[in-house]
Predict the 3D structure of the following.
Amino acid sequence: MLDLKFVVENAQLVKEAMGTRSGEYDVDIVVELDKKRREILKEVEMLKAERNRVSAEVAVLKKNKQDASEIIAKMKEVGEKIKELDGALGPIEADLRMALLSIPNIPDKSVPLGKDDGDNVEIRKYLTPTQFDFTPKPHWEIGEGMGLLDPTTAGKITGARFTIYRGLGARLERAIYNFMLDTHTQNGYTEIFPPFMVNRDSMTGTGQLPKFEEDAYAVKNTDYFLVPTAEVPVTNMLRGDVVDADKLPIWYTAYTACFRGEAGSAGRDTRGLIRQHQFNKVELVKFCMPENSWDELESLTAEAELILQKLGIPYRVVCLSSGDLGFSSAKTYDIEVWMPSYGRYVEISSCSNFVDYQARRMNIKYRTREGKTGFVHTLNGSGLAVGRTTAAILENFQNADGSVRVPEVLIPYMGTDIIK
RNA sequence: GGAGAGAUGGCAGAGCGGCUGAAUGCGCACGAUUCGAAAUCGUGUUAUGGCUGAUACCCAUACAAGGGUUCAAAUCCCUUUCUCUCCGCCA
């Protein structure tokens, strides 16, 4: 969340920033609630100061065995008044927090202004779109044709938007996330294997709640949620902590299955691995000092790109426009992989700098040697979405005879150089 | 699932109705000492909110979280969460 003081003192600026995003956000309500809160607060704090003062007098009287019943009776009234005002304050503060949580991050100055993904700006490109001297097949045809992917049986045992991987298909998926984890740990990331279920506080900490509860899978009879991304458990590892500045930056990488309701995407990408309710992803998460977060965003993006470079798959990097920016993010680069069946680039990673937005929400602070504290900056990015990588490999490395070449770096993991 | 113990500052650990925002130790900062350092000595060192030009003063709040008792709660009561020990069960 944003800093309350900042919002109240710069309401106009915040409103303008919200205007560049998609969606409507109520900044005025925050200002109003804060004003109300402060009015009551002043009154109740005065009463409390009086109570504290008089209570000290009572202590002295009692010590000297003197009668204090008169002022005790008077303080009882003050106590009731305090209780009343505190009672009024509670709901206002709760509303205020909710209102503040409902306001997204302010886009960084460098973010291109725009309405939606049509205004995203291409930053760089790697390789050129794959050319074929035959008509390439989409990955779901390749996968189902060779028995690597089986959405039909998955539909029977679970439902739509699930897939069973079989044989070399399952092996390929596993090879990919092992290769990703190995690459990232060699680059200095610490591997984390977190729980796949998290509590409500964690979902709120990273911003999935309260606004997007319908996208999440809740576990019945508990207050747990299936993780929509490893970002949630991994970023929340430091929730409420004060970290020694010397220990920063912290780089974590984690594989998890990810579970998403995909509310509002009915009819989109219904075939293949692009949009599933359960998919595998390797995530990159960073915690750093505020002054380093923009450099860390560049390196994090490069580290995610490295996977596609090593695999040899064409991609491009785009900077999301203000209108396409995620709720908690100040700036996001999407990495988009070339997908022949779509005839365009498809998102495979989203690398974001949240600056202090998540840290304030989660109360993650640093402490320097000199004792100075402040909110850390948090970043994360996919490194990468595994299912989409599988799809991209099947499509970009397919041969005319229907077989699929295994990328060089995956051969040790696959035990073969060809899938047929 | 059953029985018991516990949760206090960056860390360790006292306190168990008023004089405790919190002893003591560690860590850290500054100073003394030193050619410099170690050791030693001295001083200081929580956060959030209100007020404010102010990171100054003053005021309020906070001892897992939430509620209650009381003039007054880290201290008493209730609920929840988490941790540990023993038993059971299980991969």
